[in-house]
Amino acid sequence: MAALLARAVAACRPPAPFEPSEAPFWDDPHIAVGLLAAHLDETVPAASRPGAELDRAVAALAARGLAGPGVRVLDLGCGPGLLAVRLARLGCRVTGVDLSASSLDHARRAAAAEGLEIDYRRADFRELADVARYDVVLQSYGEMSTFAPEVRDDLLARVRRALVPGGAFVFDASRPRHHPPRGRRWEASPGGFWRPGPHLVLEERFVTPGPDGTQVACDQYVVVDAGADGGGGRVTTYRMWFHDHTPESLTAVLTAAGFAVEEVSGSLAGDPVTDDGEWLAVVARTA
Ligand SMILES: C[S@@+](CC[C@H](N)C(=O)[O-])C[C@H]1O[C@@H](n2cnc3c(N)ncnc32)[C@H](O)[C@@H]1O
């Protein structure tokens, strides 16, 4: 017990910049089940946006000519396919990539139920290796914000390679006000989102201001449970990183990566950027 407590206390420290989690999150078999439920629950905006917002986003893409019959779309981090299925209904030829087997199972079943042909692949999109295959690459709900700058820039290079000349990268990203400083939280659970059995969750947000109004935030979750053998106990730290941007800083990142920024708005539906907004959305073309 003393050793377990010492490990838990030691884990509750500020992380090094972009220090990774100690265990998989998106593709952990137990966590993935809770995540899928969150994706599909209209009242839980933690994993996917509500259907009405997704409808507006897809309508905005169609109005710009970025969705419609024959448009080849790659959806990076497609989750259970909530956007993919909407795009396929418009006649897009959709490829969806995700790490989560549970989400992809749901996505495949939902597409089959409507007779839609969507190419779903279980893969890490950071290893994207397609060349000049897509008219549009889409990433929705902030995943672009979650990487260290060097990982993000490598992914941007891969996205650029995957697009045809003049193709569009469309994504959204969080702004600093999406991650305000907040106090520590804890949870004592008999079994729930993080673990099937009893566990404690010690949660803390670390926020570091960056240059020009950007910030880096980390939501750190220290999960204490009985461990695989039910014996000595286990401490596992998960870290969710967010590099929150401004319109100017995001434009600079994309320009440096060889994209021409066509529009920065406040949402994938093309809402205006407002002072109190929490999100940015970008349409950028391969130059
Ligand atoms: C916040 S959810 C958004 C899901 C979907 N884009 C939407 O808007 O409904 C992020 C998704 O990205 C997936 N994901 C995260 N990192 C990934 C990676 N490196 N490769 C593939 N998928 C990833 C997760 O499994 C999850 O389904």
Mean pLDDT across the residues is 95
Number of domains: 2
The percentage of residues in β strands lies in 25-35%
What's the gyration radius in Å?
20 Å
What is the CATH topology descriptor of the largest domain?
Rossmann fold
Question: Can I get a quick summary?
Answer:
The chain is of the alpha/beta class and 287 residues long.
Overall description:
The chain has 287 residues and is α/β, with parallel strands linked by helices. The chain has two domains: 2-24 and 177-243, no CATH class; 48-175 and 245-286, Rossmann fold (3-Layer(aba) Sandwich). 28% of the residues lie in helices and 30% in strands. It has helices at residues 2-11, 29-40, 51-63, 82-89, 101-113, 149-162, 247-256; strands spanning 72-76, 93-98, 119-122, 134-139, 163-174, 185-189, 199-209, 215-225, 234-244, 259-265, 279-286. The strands form two sheets. Strands 3-2-1-4-5-11-10 form a seven-stranded mixed sheet, sandwiched between helices. The longest helix has 14 residues, at 149-162. The protein is globular. The structure holds S-adenosylmethionine. Residues 26, 47-48, 77-79, 82-83, 97-100, 103, 124-126, 140-141, 143 line the site of S-adenosylmethionine.
